[in-house]
Amino acid sequence: MRLYASPEYIARTGRLDTLEDLRKHRLICQNPSTPQVEPGAALIQHLLSYDVRSTLKVNNYFGVLQGVVNHLGVGVLPDYLTQDFPTLERVLPEIESVEVPVFLAYPEELRPSRRVAAFRDFVQEEIMAYRRQQSDETTSD
């Protein structure tokens, strides 16, 4: 989970150089008490401790993304969602949450299912490919 904003939003409201600058911006995030955002909740609680003057809380990442893409504020987003929006800018790059775990849940009786195994393998391969890409980008920077 990292902070992103559109270039238009930054041009209109100014860059953020420190966490204290959040006071002058709208923070777009999921409600930190929503169970599915627990890993990012600590980051959101930390950001809100800076007396953010304006927040837009939504119930899913797509809502956060739409707010950021439409220049409404600084959004707390998983970085994989921003790949299709290369113009979005990472804000305060030193600020990020702990890694968000991924779980695949299915009934025990489906464990031998080839379809479930194929889906599980696909998800694992996608995650590993994404991690390799992130690692390669970090190494080349």
Give the overall shape, derived from the CA principal axes: globular
Which value, in Å, is the CA radius of gyration? Answer: 17 Å
Low-confidence parts lasting 5 or more residues at pLDDT below 50? Answer: none
So how many helices?
A: 4
- What value does the average pLDDT take? 89
**Strand portion:** 15-25%
- Please estimate the helix content: 25-40%
Task: Give an overview of the whole structure.
The model has no long low-confidence stretch (mean pLDDT 89). The two termini are 20 Å apart. This protein has four helices and five strands; from the N terminus they run βαβαβαββα. It is α/β, with parallel strands linked by helices.
State the main characteristics:
single chain; 141 residues; alpha/beta; 5-stranded mixed sheet; 18% strand
Helix and strand topology:
Layout (H helix, E strand, L loop, with lengths): L1 E4 L1 H7 L12 E5 L7 H11 L5 E5 L2 H9 L4 E4 L11 E8 L17 H27 L1
